[in-house]
Amino acid sequence: MNANTQQTPLTWPGVCAALNDAVITCDREMRIVCANAAACALFGLHRQMLIGRAFSSLLGRSENIPLESQTHLCQACDPSACGVWRFGRAVLCAAITAAGPRPVEYTLSSVGEGDARFIIVVLRDISERIDELRNAHHEALHDALTGLPNRAYLKQRLAEAMGQGETAEALTALLFIDLDDFKDVNDTLGHDVGDELLCQIADRLSLSIRSTDFVARLGGDEFAVIVTDILNIEEAEATARRLISAITAPVRVRGLDLYVSCSIGIAYHPFNDASPEDLLRFTDIAMYRSKAAGKNTYTNFDTAFFEEIKVRKDLEHRLRQGVENDEMFFRFQPQIDLATGRVCGVEALIRWNHPQAGILAPDEFIPLAEENGLIHLLGDWVIRAACRHLKSWMAQGLEVPTLFLNVSPLQLRDPSFVEGFLQTAVDMDVPLSALGIEITESSMLHATPDMVVQLGRLRSRGVRVAIDDFGVGYSAISHLRDYSIDKIKLDRSFLEGIDSEAPPPRMARALICFVKNLGLRVTAEGVERQSQYELISAWGCDEAQGHLFGKAMSEAKLIERFLRPGCVRASASDPALPCPSGKKACAQAALS
Ligand code: C2E
Ligand code: CA
Ligand code: CA
């Protein structure tokens, strides 16, 4: 057949030739009778090679077109699949060109009737649009910061892997990885450093897995790895160990060597018969076990954890009732002024008299209260109870030292905390100078400017502010200048070994000196032995608290031993307590 467009029945060849879209005319058998220049360019074929061909032979499947579009589109473009050509609506498929398949969109229109019926096909190359679609598709399944697959993609792959696992008789392991204390990195070094760290960790994880495994970032500092086709849990555990050692090697970010660790939870399909969502939840539960076990480790999920979760849930429920039913009470511990031997403060330490479990220590319920928000209710109870005790002591004519309360960082973050604290004391007619709060060093790290102002307000009204457990974890030394505080309580870990190791560890002495140079008072916590007491006294420490002076005790015992008039000065019969004749003499006496 002659390819000269002049010989086609169409009378608008010039128009066709000028169109950017490819225009092909077919006879009613869908054989090509005419093609414009854009059509020749699209297929990379001379017009002569197009004319006479079945149009369907130019079409195929495209790797580039999203699956969802392809199935119905390929059917639409393949008459053998659906029997008819689809007219009117645009159809997406691949054009088989000399350079390979290219995504196109085409529409079919019919002109004329009977033998003079022709089909006009207008095709448009949609590579760019497909690229955009693919980018959007990629973005929907990947994390923007690290470029790793995201949670949605992980779930998709997990469902696939679990489906395959069913037939393959192999195990699929899901590892949930949570970086330890990552928040501190963000808070101390800034989010840019945190982001860079996450990117490097993402690269390390990607490099530490087999090519058949799959790593995703679930958000924040959480990652997950799918390990497929393993025969036993040891293989998954080996992966966990590999990931831990990859993460714990120092990460260099902006000239700083950062030391990160992670906690991992592992669950298995089909051992832990579960849906992908449940499997993810199981790994999360197991990961928390790793955290509780001291972090930087992995834990396999065990269904026994459910029982513990139930116990926890019950405890959570009981805790609210416990606060409401006044099942909480205080034990007290004196803080001794080393220069005078006087009790200069008392710390209130909460206990819970659980109706079934007996007396619970704060470590057994404070973290839970912090997790579920009950800490605010509990905190209110603490303030009111402290005021009740102070009022009662004043009414009994006792020598009343400052009563220090422990305040959770979460309470401090509550903008109404300071106002509530002051109001309670005023309402209960307790002088604010009789109250003090102990806040942990880590609270300072997460302080907002408003928190600093609020604490300043508390202190300006006479409430003492002490920094608790100082020196452990991330150092908050640079934050000290922002805060208005009275004293610093040196964490008891610094006292370990000061009296038994040779040479004695120097840190406690250096810290005491440091705090005093800042013009603040320093309290040594956890003083258990006379020898420790003697050393800290000689080093100029202001106050001490610990078993040497008394374990956490009942109110009656506190009054009996420390608050009764006449016994405010440490009793002479107690060998642990310093002489009352001034600090220098005390220090000398302690050392002699
Ligand atoms: P903390 O504020 O550091 O309290 C000191 C803890 O060390 C107390 O444990 C105390 O009994 C113990 N201790 C004191 N002297 C010595 C010693 O010489 N040797 C040893 N080995 N231990 C000593 P406790 O009462 O179990 O309190 C644990 C933690 O619970 C407290 O640590 C505090 O962070 C928290 N806590 C206690 N009461 C409250 C409260 O009312 N509210 C909040 N938010 N937290 C509280
Ligand atoms: Ca404390
Ligand atoms: Ca402490």
Characterize the structure shown:
With 592 residues, this protein is α/β, with parallel strands linked by helices. The protein has 22 helices and 22 strands. The strands form four sheets. An eight-stranded mixed barrel has the order 14-15-17-18-19-20-21-22, surrounded by five helices. A six-stranded antiparallel sheet has the order 2-1-6-5-4-3. It is elongated and about 120 Å long. The termini are far apart. Mean pLDDT is 86; it is low at 70-83, 568-576 and 578-592. Residues 347, 406, 438, 468 line the site of one calcium ion (CA). One calcium ion binds at residues 347, 406, 438, 468.
Small molecules (ligands, ions, cofactors) in the structure: ligand C2E, calcium ion
How far the N terminus sits from the C terminus, by CA atoms, comes to: 120 Å
Residue-averaged pLDDT, rounded?
A: 86
**Strand-residue proportion:** 15-25%
Report the major sheet: 8 strands, mixed, barrel
Question: Counting H and I runs of at least 4 residues, what is the number of helices?
Answer: 22
Q: Which value, in Å, is the CA radius of gyration?
A: 37 Å
Unreliable stretches (pLDDT < 50, length at least 5) are: 70-83, 568-576, 578-592
Please give the structural blueprint:
Elements: H1 13-18, E1 22-26, E2 32-35, H2 37-43, H3 47-50, E3 59-60, H4 67-77, H5 79-82, E4 91-97, E5 100-111, E6 118-125, H6 127-141, H7 151-168, E7 171-179, H8 182-189, H9 191-208, E8 214-219, E9 222-230, H10 233-248, E10 251-253, E11 256-258, E12 262-269, H11 276-292, E13 298-300, H12 304-324, E14 328-337, E15 343-354, E16 358-360, H13 366-372, H14 375-395, E17 402-407, H15 409-413, H16 417-427, E18 435-440, H17 441-445, H18 449-460, E19 464-470, E20 487-490, H19 507-517, E21 521-525, H20 530-538, E22 543-545, H21 555-563, H22 583-591
Parallel strand pairs: 12-13, 15-17, 17-18, 18-19, 19-20, 20-21, 21-22
Antiparallel strand pairs: 1-2, 1-6, 3-4, 4-5, 5-6, 7-9, 7-12, 8-9, 10-11, 14-15, 14-22, 15-16
Helix pairs in contact: 8-9, 9-10, 14-16, 20-22
Bound molecules: ligand C2E and calcium ion (CA) (2 copies).
The site of one calcium ion has 4 residues, from loops.
